[in-house]
Amino acid sequence: MIAGVLLIGAGGLAREVLAAGIAGVAGILDDDRSLLGTEVGGVPVIGAVDAAVHREERLLVCIGPGAARRRVVRRLSDAGVAHHRFATFAAPSARIGATSVVGAGSILLDGVVVTADAVIGRHVVVMPNCVITHDDVLDDGATLAAGVALGGGVRVGEGAYIGMNASIRQGVAIGADATVGMGAVVLADVPATETWAGVPARPLGVPA
């Protein structure tokens, strides 16, 4: 159970985290001034993001797009927020193997399964019903959309995005800031920053 936590960002991911049963939320911080004093999922928006620096609660960055999430984390870190201030949230229905580790700031939503010896970095978002199997490594800031399945020994690079219901073959590496499209079946390494889609997946713009 997480006690005394502030959610950063008042969008859809914050609502999903609240719906998944996070406890002890003291409020939400968001830079949209029009949201101040409103409620999201019954939790009040109490200030802008920078207010986190002057408070004592732990922080959970609930910003869906990976690039924006990383910018906010960097901004908070540059302002003096230490890594130990960032909370980690796994929904009660998520299953995490005893030999797997999850880094600070990461979010695992309902129905996520993590099996053996997986390493999930900092500020990773794993949406509902994803399967992360043995020896997978998800680098900081990666995002798995709902229903993604990773075979064993997959490496997902920093800031990479894997689209909904995509499947990644065992041993494949997804490069930093790469994008894999919805429903893709990835059988080969995806280079950094490239976008791949299809069955089997190939770079966008390459004829089938």
Explain the overall architecture.
With 208 residues, this protein is mainly beta. It has 2 domains: 5-85, 3-Layer(aba) Sandwich (Rossmann fold); 89-197, UDP N-Acetylglucosamine Acyltransferase, domain 1 (3 Solenoid), CATH 2.160.10. Helix content is 10%, strand content 28%. The chain has 2 helices and 24 strands. The strands form 4 sheets. It has an 8-stranded mixed sheet with strand order 6-9-12-15-18-21-23-24, with no helix packed on it. Strand 1 (5-8), helix 1 (12-19) and strand 2 (25-29) form a beta-alpha-beta unit. The chain is globular. The termini are far apart. The mean pLDDT is 95.
What's the helix and strand layout?
Layout: E1 5-8, H1 12-19, E2 25-29, E3 39-40, E4 43-47, E5 58-61, H2 66-78, E6 89-90, E7 95-96, E8 101-102, E9 107-108, E10 113-114, E11 119-120, E12 125-126, E13 131-132, E14 137-138, E15 143-144, E16 149-150, E17 155-156, E18 161-162, E19 167-168, E20 173-174, E21 179-180, E22 185-186, E23 195-197, E24 202-203
